[in-house]
Task: inverse folding
């Protein structure tokens, strides 16, 4: 073999790693061009500054999941591809009520602060993989296991009491297609087929042991049922303020929809007008413990559906 052939083979061998690295770099650039600056919602939100997930989206960290309006929203700053992981740097956002219904905000620090922020402003997410993604589609699939990248994914990941509100007030979005998340205050009277056709989760053992609701009556000026006497609250412990709302000095009135059964117990709850910052989950959790003198119709206790205001005030 002459010296020219040996030199040519050597140069070819040396050229292989840079070509592979360039391909990885191109994929990284494509993902950053698509997701940089976009707001995504964690399917399993936690308050840790560093979050680790496997390729199926299961958390590898110990700890309890938190409310998505406090811990779930992340604005992506940078995505990096490693040999066996995808690393994502982002800014943690809160979600709270705004002119358009709900909107993500960065946590702001009040004047003369006396409280620490509820979560660190920065967050690092690492997704473990068996092998690096080779295409944008593969990378999107891994990100989609950890984040709700479209409306259906978000509806599936949030608690049930959120779903009807979000279905009506959250426009269809798909970050894989570049369509960003937008809320609207007016809402849509028509529920999406995805939610209407979604399977209802099986009842828990406690729900199965409860008596059937029977006919659910309505009352009020626009009710179709007449001569229904409204239920009266007899036990209504106040919900707790969340650290995020206290830090933001945020207060307001949460409106919930609920069904009260013939025994005066709360059987179903949904959000009608949310506040965000974890106050909705706090309100729902506490309202589920409320008891009422049941509604009456023709002298008999009946089940009713009603709206209930829950005030959160800072004193």
Result:
């Amino acid at each position: 073999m002459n010296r020219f052939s040996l030199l040519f083979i050597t140069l070819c061998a040396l050229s292989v790693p840079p070509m592979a690295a360039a391909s990885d770099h191109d994929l990284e650039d494509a993902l950053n061009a698509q997701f940089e600056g976009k707001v995504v919602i964690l399917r399993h939100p936690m308050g840790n500054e560093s979050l680790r997930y496997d390729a199926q989206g299961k958390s590898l960290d110990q700890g309890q999941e938190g409310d998505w309006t406090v811990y779930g929203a992340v604005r992506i700053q940078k995505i990096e591809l490693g040999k066996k992981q995808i690393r994502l740097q982002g800014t943690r956002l809160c979600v709270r009520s705004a002119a358009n219904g709900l909107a993500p905000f960065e946590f702001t620090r009040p004047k003369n602060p006396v409280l620490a922020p509820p979560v660190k402003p920065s967050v690092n997410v690492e997704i473990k993989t068996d092998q690096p993604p080779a295409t944008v589609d593969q990378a999107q699939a891994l990100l989609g296991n950890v984040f709700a990248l479209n409306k259906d994914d978000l509806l599936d990941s949030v608690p049930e009491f959120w779903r009807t509100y979000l279905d009506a007030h959250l426009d269809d979005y798909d970050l894989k297609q570049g369509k960003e998340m937008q809320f609207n205050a007016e809402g849509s009277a028509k529920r999406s087929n995805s939610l209407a056709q979604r399977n209802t989760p099986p009842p828990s053992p406690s729900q199965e042991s409860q008596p059937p609701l029977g006919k659910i009556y309505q009352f009020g000026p626009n009710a179709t049922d007449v001569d229904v006497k409204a239920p009266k609250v007899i036990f209504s412990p106040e919900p707790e303020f969340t650290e995020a709302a206290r830090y933001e000095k945020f207060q307001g009135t949460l409106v919930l929809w609920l069904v009260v059964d013939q025994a005066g117990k709360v059987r179903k709850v949904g959000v009608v007008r949310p506040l965000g910052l974890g106050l909705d989950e706090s309100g729902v959790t506490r309202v589920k413990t409320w008891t009422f003198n049941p509604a009456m119709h023709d002298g008999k206790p009946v089940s009713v559906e009603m709206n209930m205001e829950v005030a959160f005030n800072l004193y």
Remarks:
- Confidence is low (pLDDT under 50) at residues 3-22, 190-202.
- Residues 209-312 form a domain with the TolA/TonB C-terminal domain fold (CATH 3.30.2420.10).
